[in-house]
Design brief:
Layout lengths: L4 H15 L8 E3 L2 E5 L6 E3 L1 E3 L11 H14 L3 E2 L9 H9 L9 E6 L4 H15 L4 E6 L7 H7 L2 H10 L3 E7 L4 H9 L6 E5 L10 H4 L1 H6 L3 E5 L17 H9 L5 E4 L4 H12 L6 H15 L6 H4 L3 H10 L5
Parallel strand pairs: 4-11, 5-6, 6-7, 7-8, 8-9, 9-10, 10-11
Antiparallel strand pairs: 1-2, 2-3
Length: 331
């Protein structure tokens, strides 16, 4: 008899958790915030990471944004996320100002590029360095690998050649990629001939029930001892998992933190939300198996069609066209 989907999800998730987080002994804490090793990089990073998109939004003043970032560092957060295109570059500009006065030396700094060829990635790296007012990134990632055919384009072109040159020149320490639409594009990137340091993907309590990154991609990243960066743990924008009533904000963070990941990103646009997330991170303890399964079961009725993970189900017209051209189906 074939196992039920529910039993399969529970069994697969349990096996994944048994693998643990690569390269990690007992977790270190700094100011009460757990730290983990970012895979093969060997770098210690805070389990709670600061998402870069929110800190550049117009509802947050520049001074409040800088205060939020510096408070996060002072409280024990060292993983800073960003991207070249966030808020037209405002997120990087504000972060650059926040990292003055010795704060740069206290963070593991990551940003991302949208380029798919050498010219694009070079221009975006140079612009990111200027905005951030630094001469080196700790981590640089190819961002939003979402279209079928994009992995082939990256591997067959000259973008990787340039990114390796940038690493040799000391402008970049580590290299990774991100994506949030199709698990198949992640798997294609992992199958290519490049030793990626990190991988950023959606991981949340709903994900296991629909086109799951946790079940399809995460085990392969663990096998490669990659630094795994969890995003969209609350469902992303405009998704909102706690709004369903199935799970709380803290349960979402704790579920993601319980996975074999290195850091869990959270978008924070107020000191109140920052303090709430800090308290949640400090309170994190590995989930008992019964508690983990109970969370999955609470999420299941709301999660099986993916409507609360819109990045999986709401397809941009150009992505749909790419899928038709390559004969791809969502997975």
């Amino acid at each position: 008899m074939q196992p039920s989907r529910r039993a399969f999800i529970a069994g697969a998730a349990a096996a994944l958790l048994a693998a643990g987080t690569p390269g990690q002994a007992e977790p270190e804490k700094r100011n009460g915030i757990p730290y983990r090793v970012l895979g093969k990089t060997g770098q210690a990073v805070s389990l709670l990471g600061l998402g870069g998109a929110h800190i550049g939004q117009s509802n947050l003043t520049e001074s409040d944004s800088i205060k939020l970032m510096r408070t996060a560092v002072d409280e024990g957060v060292n993983f800073f996320d960003n991207a070249w295109h966030y808020n037209g570059g405002e997120s990087e500009r504000r972060m650059g100002k926040a990292l003055k006065d010795g704060y740069r030396d206290k963070v593991f700094l990551m940003t991302k590029n949208q380029g798919r060829d050498r010219k694009q990635v070079q221009e975006q790296l140079e612009e990111s360095l200027r905005r951030l007012q630094v001469d080196r990134l700790d981590l640089w990632q190819f961002h939003e690998i979402v279209h079928p055919g994009e992995p082939r384009k990256i591997y067959s072109g000259d973008a990787i050649e340039y990114i390796l040159k940038a690493r040799e020149e000391g402008k970049v320490r580590f290299i990774g990629f991100t994506g949030h639409h199709l698990t198949s594009t992640h798997l294609e990137m992992l199958a290519g001939d490049f030793d990626w340091d990190t991988l950023q993907m959606p991981l949340n309590v709903f994900d296991a029930h629909f086109r799951s990154f946790q079940l399809k991609v995460l085990p392969k990243a663990v096998e490669r001892n990659m630094g795994i960066i969890a995003m969209k743990t609350q469902g992303g924008s405009p998704g909102n998992l706690p709004a369903t009533g199935a799970v709380t904000h803290a349960e979402c963070l704790h579920y993601a933190m319980n996975l074999p990941v290195s850091t869990v990103l959270s978008g924070m646009d107020s000191l109140e939300i920052l303090q709430k997330n800090l308290a949640t991170a400090r309170a994190f303890m590995p989930l008992e198996e019964t508690a983990r399964l109970a969370l999955l079961e609470k999420a299941r009725p709301f999660a099986e069609k993916g409507e609360h993970e819109p990045y999986k189900t709401v397809w941009h017209r150009d992505i749909e066209e790419s899928m038709r051209q390559f004969g791809a189906v969502p997975s």
